[in-house]
Amino acid sequence: MTTRDVVFPPGRQALYEHNRYSPAVRSNGFLFVSGQVGSREDGSPEPDLEVQVRLAFDNLNAILAAAGCTFDDIVDVTVFIVDPESKFDTIWKLVPEYWGAAPHPTLTAVGVTWLYGFQFEIKVIAKLPDVSND
């Protein structure tokens, strides 16, 4: 079995070990990032939706930075939203702060009924920067 090349953001390794998953894995030139939610330092959900979305993006950006990436390296995004009909506008008004300039990554938005107490989750695939020594 191949050993996974796991990326941990600073200061949150215990949270991932407790929940038994990797925050991100490098493979074949890509970074596959697990769904990120707006959790507080202890892993509990932030109750305020706007703050929760910002924390989810902050958590995502910490993982991207740990892998040497930025949001501009993302090629595919999946978001999960509990009750998207009532929450989509609130969430989507915050996206431009994090999304970057066009062209934008691909996007799949999924309405769900449960996210372990969270209202929003974002999962991405990013292209790792070339590190060749030309």
UniProtKB/TrEMBL annotation:
Domain of life, per lineage: Bacteria
GO-annotated cellular components: cytosol
Molecular function GO labels: deaminase activity
InterPro entries: RutC-like_sf, YjgF/YER057c/UK114, YjgH-like
CDD domains, sorted: YjgH_like
Pfam families: Ribonuc_L-PSP (PF01042)
UniProt cross-references to PANTHER family, sorted A to Z: 2-IMINOBUTANOATE/2-IMINOPROPANOATE DEAMINASE RIDA, RUTC FAMILY PROTEIN YJGH
Protein name stated in the entry: Endoribonuclease L-PSP
